[in-house]
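We store sequence with structure; for instance:
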Amino acid sequence: MPRRPRIKLAEVPQHIVQRGINREPCFFAEEDYHSYLHWLQKSAGDWHCAIHAYVLMTNHVHLLVTSAKPDGIAKMMQSIGRRYVQYINRSYRRTGSLWEGRFKSSLVQAEEYLLTCMRYIELNPVRANMVNDPAQYRWSSYRHNGLGQIDERITPHSLYLALGKEETERLAEYRGLFRSELDDAAIADIRLALAQGQPLGSSINGVSIAFLFEQPCGALSA
């Protein structure tokens, strides 16, 4: 069965997941996380991508990214993948691929799902029973988005900024979103969108999802 083509749009958030091959670890030591984050920041800058949220799990990565150019995210992920795999293979005297095929991605209808998607990403360590609170996990954007600890990799989305005029108000509002767990329906919607490579929501920039998938190859890119 042919792969579903990607819809590449500028200025639309995308939820990205990349897993280790056979779901095996892609981070083995603290320095590995630092290395990935370094290349994430560098590659995002090189390809004009804004990182809104992330989490680095033991065997996979979640990112929420908006690109200024249609192919920016693909270029960013290629850059990170190449540099990080070279680092891992050199450090651990291994060869071959680290990642399980191409990354999965889903466009996000920001008005309906952006903050939900941020919660989904930053709550990953809690759902995995690694920590009891997202603030306890070092390798995510929660401490920046929820506690105000500076993370130069993060560019806040306008909908995040709209949570409050002042930083203290904004942080409190964001933390308030985490007082309740994500409901099962929201989790299922996010996972289905990623699994099928389809947008999360009913429309993107006012254009229906069905219409986007009906477009010729000029609008869709594998």
